[in-house]
Design a protein that fits this description.
Oligomer: single chain
CATH topology: Rossmann fold
Largest sheet: 7 strands, mixed
Strand order of the largest sheet: 3-2-1-4-5-7-6
Order of helices and strands: HHEHEHHHEEHEHHEHE
CATH superfamily: Vaccinia Virus protein VP39
Number of helices: 10
CATH architecture: 3-Layer(aba) Sandwich
Number of strands: 7
Helix content: 25-40%
Length: 312
């Protein structure tokens, strides 16, 4: 449901004086975190992420670190979360963690109901991907002593560097070059003010041959009645709606994300597009978007798997 423009403008003006409340409205359900992680992990493996990634970075974890905790629970050794603002609370993280442990212990299938029904990308099978994880390694990753180590790191009681939670997004520049095995995000890159700079930092951080996966949502995010209605607003009106909010929608289309990744040096191995009908038509576009391609105008989302070439 779209938020009235007047209310968006009021929120933008209020942000000039008052910081917006914490919270994004998502990622607090274990089912959601489990489903998102396995979708990324399955497709990342399909396009080049062969071994368990030891060092993982998530961009924009939101209201919990659940998706990244899944990486640790399946064998990763270090998880770094980077967000515009630190949203996640310890109580939420611990609750999600325990639920994820239970689901993984049962080798539960990928959830597709309720909140998970609209998650993209889609998979060819929603069974638990047994072929992706070595059973003995997964059992070892879920051993009681290791679970307690993760809990202690999550709570800050143990300075073992297993989990790092950083903000703002520029904190990426503090990660060592060529030290990361996998970077991922879910519905985040459409909110980043300078995605080109972020993609370049991702390239710098990743090891040669490593991959990143991003699900990018190009829709209006409740700023218009039409799914692509955010492209009809002139820049002056959009600036009023944005105000000084630390994150909003950057309004970049699919081809721009594709180009920025290429420019950063990535080899794009897969792009799974989500096409929607029933949005605004070309004649309704604001002047700055009039040259948008027909494909961009109809692309509501895309899942990227991009690799850093070993030759670079």
């Amino acid at each position: 449901m779209a938020i009235p423009v007047g209310r968006l403008i009021l929120g933008g003006l209020r942000s000039l004086a008052v910081s917006p409340p914490l919270g994004t409205g998502g990622t607090v359900a274990a089912d959601y975190c489990y489903s998102v992680f396995l979708r990324h992990r399955v497709l990342a493996a399909q396009y080049g992420l062969a071994a368990t990634p030891l060092r993982v970075v998530e961009l924009g974890p939101g209201d919990s670190l659940g998706i990244g905790l899944m990486a640790l629970l399946t064998g990763s050794e270090r998880y770094i979360a980077i967000d515009a603002v630190r949203h996640a609370s310890l109580a939420t993280n611990l609750s999600v963690f325990e639920a994820l442990v239970a689901m993984l212990s049962q080798r539960a299938p990928v959830p597709t109901n309720g909140e998970c029904a609209d998650i993209r990308p889609e998979l060819s099978s929603y069974d638990f991907p047994h072929g992706l994880f070595d059973e003995s390694a997964l059992t070892k990753a879920l051993a009681p002593k290791r679970l307690e180590t993760i809990r202690r790191s999550l709570s800050g009681a143990d300075r073992n560097d297993m989990i790092q939670y950083l903000a703002p997004m520029g904190a990426l520049d503090g990660i060592e070059s060529e030290s990361v095995d996998w970077i991922f995000s879910q519905a985040v890159m459409e909110h980043v003010d300078e995605p080109g700079a972020t993609y370049r930092q991702c390239f710098r951080c990743l090891k040669p041959g490593a991959v990143m996966t991003h699900q990018v949502d190009y829709r209006c995010h409740e700023t218009a009645p039409e799914w692509n209605g955010h492209w009809k607003y002139p820049q002056w009106l959009w600036s009023l709606m944005r105000g000084r909010r630390p994150w909003f929608v950057n309004r970049l289309a699919h081809s721009q994300h594709w180009y920025m990744q290429q420019e950063a040096g990535f080899e794009i191995r897969a792009q799974i597009l989500q096409v929607e009908q029933g949005g605004i038509e070309r004649g309704q576009l604001a002047s700055r978007f009039r040259t948008m391609t027909d494909e961009d105008l109809a692309t509501a989302g895309a899942f990227f798997v991009s690799a850093k070439s070993k030759a670079r």
